[in-house]
């Protein structure tokens, strides 16, 4: 367990906020116009998938923020 502050936590949180905002803007400006004419029942799974996709790299990023390594060694 970490006993002293590290620069990775504030840097990681700031980076995560910036990356998530950039991802949301990319979806809003690139994907939305491409699928706006699709029926709503077809658009819904696309937005659900894109809304969950940003979580995929999050585990390793959080491990890095906490330990400084990209993998959790048990």
Element layout with pairings:
Layout: H1 8-35, H2 40-53, H3 58-67
Helix pairs in contact: 1-3
Describe the protein:
With 74 residues, the protein is mainly α. The chain is 70% helix and 0% strand. The protein has three helices and no strands. Helix 1 (8-35) runs antiparallel to helix 3. The longest helix is centred in the N-terminal third of the chain and has 28 residues, at 8-35. The two termini are 13 Å apart. The model has no long low-confidence stretch (mean pLDDT 89).
Largest sheet: none
List segments where confidence is low: pLDDT < 50 over at least 5 consecutive residues: none
Shape designation: elongated
Number of strand segments: 0
Q: H/E series, N to C?
A: HHH
Q: Which whole number gives the mean pLDDT?
A: 89
Which descriptors apply to this entry?
single chain; 74 residues; mainly alpha; 3 helices; 70% helix; elongated
State the gist of this model:
By secondary structure, the chain is mostly helical.
């Amino acid at each position: 367990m970490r006993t002293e502050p590290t620069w990775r936590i504030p840097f990681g949180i700031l980076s995560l906020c910036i990356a998530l905002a950039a991802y949301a803007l990319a979806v809003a400006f690139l994907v939305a116009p491409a699928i706006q004419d699709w029926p709503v029942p077809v658009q819904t799974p696309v937005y659900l998938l894109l809304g969950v996709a940003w979580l995929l790299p999050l585990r390793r990023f959080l491990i890095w923020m906490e330990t400084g390594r990209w993998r959790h060694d048990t």
